[in-house]
Amino acid sequence: MRFRVRKRRQPPAIIIVALIDVLIVLLIFLMVTTTFKQQPALKLALPESSQAQQTGANETPPLVVTVDPQGSLRFGPQGTPVTAERLRDELLEAASRNPEVRLAISADKAAPFGQIVKVMDAAKEARIKSVNAFTREISRP
C-alpha cells in the first residue's frame, strides 16, 4: 500500500495591495459619477409668471436680495442676513463701483410685500436702474 505524502498547504494569503487598488477605483468612480450641485440656503416657493425667462450664461450675474416668508432679508450669493439700512448701504456701495449693476429680488410668494417694497426703495435710492424678480414658469398641463 502506498501512502501519499501530504504536502503542507500554505494558508490562503490576502493580497492587501490589490484590495486597496480596487477600493481606490471604486472611490474614483463614485466621485466622478456624483453630481455636485449647490443647494440654496433657503427653500423659496417662487411666484409663477407666464413671462418667466432664464438668464443667459454670458450675462454678468445680478446682485441678489432674498426675502423669506418671515420677511428677513439676505444679500449676496452667500445669503448674508442684512437689515434694510445695511442693504441700502450695500446697494449704494455696489452702485458706486458699477453704475450698470442689476438687482434681482428673490422673494417667497408668502413674503411680506412691505419688505419687497423696502428692497425696491433701497434700489431706487442707490440709483439702480434694473430691478427684476425671480419667478418660475407656469406649469401647464
Report on the structure:
With 141 residues, the chain is an alpha/beta fold. Helix content is 32%, strand content 18%. The protein contains three helices and seven strands; from the N terminus they run αββββαβαββ. The protein has helices spanning 16-33, 84-97, 113-125, and strands spanning 48-49, 63-67, 73-75, 80-82, 102-107, 130-133, 136-137. It has a five-stranded mixed sheet. It has a two-stranded parallel ribbon with strand order 1-7. Helix 3 links the parallel strand 5 and strand 6. Helix 2 runs parallel beside helix 3 (113-125). The N and C termini lie far apart (89 Å).
Percentage of residues in helical conformation: 25-40%
Proportion of beta-strand residues? 15-25%
> How far do the termini sit from each other?
89 Å
What form results from the Cα inertia axes?
A: rod-shaped
Q: Which stretches of 5+ consecutive residues score pLDDT under 50?
A: none
CATH hierarchy class name of the domain at 48-137: Alpha Beta
Assign the structural class, choosing from mainly alpha, mainly beta, alpha/beta, alpha+beta, or little secondary structure: alpha/beta
CATH fold-level topology of the domain at 48-137: Nucleotidyltransferase, domain 5
> What pattern of helices and strands is seen along the backbone?
HEEEEHEHEE
Under the CATH scheme, which architecture of the domain at 48-137 would be assigned? 2-Layer Sandwich
The largest sheet, given as strand count, sense and whether it forms a barrel, is: 5 strands, mixed
Give the beta-strand count.
7
Overall average residue pLDDT: 80
Enumerate how many helices there are, as a single number: 3
Strand order of the largest sheet: 4-3-2-5-6
Gyration radius, in Å: 29 Å
